[in-house]
Structures are given as structure tokens and as C-alpha cells.
Design goal:
β9 and β10 form a beta hairpin. It contains eleven helices and 18 strands. The longest helix is centred in the last third of the chain and has 14 residues. By secondary structure, the protein is of the alpha+beta class.
């Protein structure tokens, strides 16, 4: 069996963190924080893996550059299999730590303790007693606190959207769960000149990395950059639900046709990012005929759980004349087509040209400059 030290060295070589972080990644063992029972993603399925039953496979998984699912359905075994907590992909962890621009002595608020590995990396960099980590799930928080014993990390069980005022102000706020709206509490609890780094996305596009600089007037502004997908903070999840729950046989619908193929609006990173900004609350789901990936016959579903609206976008080989059905008060396909047209007319801007300004009144998304708002 290959030793944990050898596997850790290989992972560090693969991830290749900068010289600023390399020693920290070597000093903090990931497997020390991974629970004995995990789930490994394989296509659309989750495969359970336990330390007792297969210790070598478990250890190798700990030192692979992949996310590991550590909790399903908030710990409720009676539900459907929604991924609710994980050990993040090491290369993404390294990218986010670099984006935070940390130095010894910085006071850091981490949102989402998870396994505790990220908090341990932070503490190694900024020093004992300088990291506060907030975890909403009591069971996850307890396990992380045990793993972090002796690290000097202050683990708090609570709602990370509220930050943690008793330990404020912070020089950095680093979230390991995605948001659609940046909580102002994070800005309010950060010192002027400090930074907020968080995964950010929409119901349609999860997600990218947002870096915000906090100003002396209590606002924060910054740009997007990087392809990162994270689980949502619990207060900002799009409601769960299956296709069968949302698209019912008895639903009435209108039917039209379009020559727009779903490839670019759905699959292009920058196009789907822009569409998500202009069509809030919309989710998409691709269903292949006979449940065979790659089948040329498939349907793209657009759904808004809030209003109960849906659209289906049927694709088959042949003429570019695709059938579209729409149900509910929102015409989701029409909204998507308008947003896609807007993005094209704007010159197909990359997601890095977009940014956010956060104030006590909320957040504003803009293109190129804070005054050019995206409606």
C-alpha cells in the first residue's frame, strides 16, 4: 500500500500550487480531515467508499484531484441523494487560496467549514487563532472541529450568510459554498482594503469565482474569473424537485418552433453565464432519449420552480426546426432566446468582463464598468 506521504507528494506535484502555498499543502494532510465514509462521483451516480472496507482505495481517493462527497441530503437518509457537503477539489482549493492573497497575521472568516481541510490550510498560512470558520450543519461542524483540534481554528456552528460578528473585523472572507447574492454581512465585517472571495452563480450557471475589494464607504466591488462549481449555501439553493414533479402530463402549453440549437446557449461557459444573469430562477436539464448519453434525439427542459413555469426544447437530427413547448406565467424559452440575443449583440463578452458591486441595499451586476448595469 502506497503511503499517505507519497500520495500527498504526488498530489502536490499534480496540483502544482505556487511556491507561496506548496509547503502548506505538504504540511497539512488531506486524509486526516476526510470522513471514513465518502461517495465518489462517477458520471451521474455516486459510489460509496468506506475506509474500513477498502482502506487503500479510500486513501487514494483522499489524494486524488477530485471532489469527494461527504454528506448527502443534509444527513437525511430518507431523501433522494442531493449532494450537500464535500471535500473540495484540491486544485480548486489552491486557486481560491491564491485569489485570497493571504499573508501571515491576516484574520480570516471562512464560510463553510466542511471537512476542515481548507481551514487547516488557512491556519497554517495566517497563524493560529486567526481563522474563524462557520458551518451550518451541526454534525459536519462537530466532525471538522475534532479534526481541527490543536490547529487554533475557531469553528462556529451557525448560518454563514450572517458571518460571525464577535470575531470581526476580518482581513479576508473566503466562502467554500456558492452564492447567488453576496450577503452584505460579509462586506460589513471586512476591514476596508480587505477582500471577499466566493464562488458565485445563478440557477442556470454554477459557477465562477468572484473577488471583491472592500472600500472605506462600506461597499465592495470586483470581477468574476475562473470556472468553479460549488454547492450552494443552504439559504440560496434553488428548490429541489424532479422533472416528473415539475413537468406534468396535465399541464397545458403553447407550442412553437425555433431554429436556435441549444448547444451554444447551454454549453458555452460565457453564453450560459450571461443568460443566467438575465433569466433569474431558471434551471435546465438535458434528457437523452432512452437515457443514452450521446443519443442525437434529446430534449432540453427549462424550469422555474418558483412560478411552476417550464419549457421543453426538442432536438432531433434533420432540418433546424426545433419544437418548443412552454407552460406557465413565464415564457422561459422566450426569455432565454432574448438573453442569448442580447449577449451576442453585446459582442459575446467573456464572463471576466462582468462584475458586481455590493452595498447595504443589495448587489448590482455590471458589464465592463459599474455604471453599465445588467438588468
Amino acid at each position: 500500500m502506497t503511503s499517505a506521504e507519497d500520495l500527498r507528494s504526488r498530489l502536490v506535484e499534480e496540483v502544482s500550487p505556487s511556491s507561496t502555498w506548496r509547503d502548506t499543502f505538504m504540511r497539512v494532510p488531506r486524509h486526516h480531515f476526510v470522513p471514513d465514509r465518502i461517495w465518489v462521483e462517477s458520471e451521474d451516480d455516486l459510489t460509496p467508499l468506506t475506509r474500513v472496507e477498502d482502506p487503500e482505495a479510500w486513501l487514494r481517493a483522499c489524494y486524488s484531484d477530485r471532489p469527494l462527497i461527504t454528506q448527502i441530503d443534509d444527513g437525511d437518509a430518507t431523501r433522494r441523494g442531493y449532494r450537500s457537503s464535500s471535500a473540495s477539489m484540491p486544485s480548486i482549493v489552491a486557486m481560491m487560496l491564491e485569489a485570497a492573497d493571504l499573508a501571515a497575521g491576516h484574520r480570516v472568516l471562512e464560510i463553510g467549514t466542511g471537512t476542515g481541510w481548507n481551514a487547516a490550510l488557512l491556519a497554517d498560512k495566517v497563524g493560529r487563532g486567526n481563522v474563524t470558520s462557520v458551518e451550518i450543519d451541526p454534525a459536519v461542524a462537530r466532525q471538522a472541529e475534532e479534526a481541527l483540534a490543536g490547529s487554533g481554528v475557531h469553528v462556529v456552528t451557525g448560518d454563514g450568510e450572517k458571518g460571525y460578528p464577535p470575531d470581526a473585523p476580518y482581513d479576508r472572507v473566503l466562502a467554500t459554498a456558492a452564492v447567488q447574492r453576496v450577503p452584505y454581512a460579509w462586506v460589513e465585517q471586512t476591514s476596508p482594503g480587505g477582500r471577499v472571495v466566493t464562488p458565485w452563480g445563478t440557477s442556470f450557471h454554477n459557477g465562477t469565482l468572484l473577488r471583491l475589494q472592500v472600500e472605506a464607504d462600506g461597499t465592495a466591488s470586483g470581477r468574476f474569473g475562473g470556472n468553479v462549481g460549488f454547492m450552494w449555501v443552504r439559504g440560496q439553493r434553488t428548490p429541489h424537485g424532479s422533472l416528473e414533479d415539475r413537468v406534468r402530463p396535465e399541464h397545458e402549453y403553447t407550442e412553437t418552433s425555433t431554429d436556435l440549437h441549444p448547444y451554444e446557449p447551454i454549453s458555452d461557459f460565457d453564453a450560459s453565464f450571461a443568460i443566467g444573469l438575465r433569466v433569474p430562477g431558471m434551471k435546465d436539464l438535458l434528457v437523452f432519449d432512452d437515457d443514452v448519453p450521446g443519443n442525437p434525439n434529446y430534449t432540453v427542459y427549462l424550469m422555474d420552480p418558483g412560478s411552476g413555469s417550464w419549457a421543453s426544447w426538442r432536438v432531433q437530427p434533420g432540418p433546424h426546426d426545433y419544437r418548443v413547448r412552454q407552460h406557465g406565467p413565464r415564457r422561459l424559452f422566450d426569455e432565454l432566446a432574448e438573453a442569448y440575443s442580447w449577449w451576442r449583440k453585446a459582442g459575446r463578452p467573456e464572463h471576466t468582463r462582468f462584475g458586481v458591486t455590493v452595498t447595504p441595499e443589495g448587489q448590482r451586476v455590471w458589464l465592463d464598468a459599474p455604471g453599465n448595469l445588467v438588468s
